[in-house]
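Input/output pair, single chain:
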Amino acid sequence: MSEKLKVLITGLNGVVGQVLRPVLEERYTISALSRSGVDGLPAERVFKANIADIDSLRPAFEGIDVVLNLAADGGLGSDAGMNAGWDSMLNNNIIGAYNVLEVAKQAGISRVILASSGATSNGYELEEPYKSLVATEDVEIPESWEMVNEFSEPKPISLYGVTKLFGEDIGRYYALTTDLSVINLRISSCGPIDKAGPGRGQANWSSHRDLQQLTIKIIEAPADLKFDIFWATSNNRKLFRDNAHAKDVLGYAPQDGVR
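Output:
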């Protein structure tokens, strides 16, 4: 029997980390890096560090195969949501993303998966037909619409979205200039309760098991997949964040969706 992949996860205590933890812990040997530590893992696989302090990260990366970087400020898991303070987002989302990639490169790690966000494209929801697709009130839905895929023009309307676009671009830089494979996972509407919320959740929802499946497929994707971006969405009737690319490249097969 082949040895389990060793996967280091930053931000495991967050909403997405808690969604992913059960299946990743069952399938891989996971380690965790965070400021405050993580319960339920052997002490030798729990690392306390500040993601903005590059030297503090190095011990956690030794012997690791894949890094899943969920650590961030802003978004669903933050107290201030997408209005988190700039200094915190600078340290966690920008400096932190660079530090993770740089230490991974130096440690000879094969793949880094960066948690990106639907916030990279939230500006589409200010325009029709997407405005109607995310409306909380009962409005007429068009028969068809143009999908927003991974290569559509980014439209952030928050600094949080801007920081996530930085992560995607610095990931591209490392994939092009080093041996690292860097995959960006644009996590859509996925909360602690495994149910689509009203309005935009009806269009953008990702169920827990669909996000789990897609993350595993990215971790285990062939080594020659050097760089890519994938939307994490379920098959919702109002879907416009296009998951077709993940289906084509990875064989992603969503099991859920809001009909």
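The helical segments are 15-27, 54-61, 86-107, 130-133, 159-177, 200-204, 208-219, 244-250. The CA atoms of residues 222 and 250 lie 9 Å apart.
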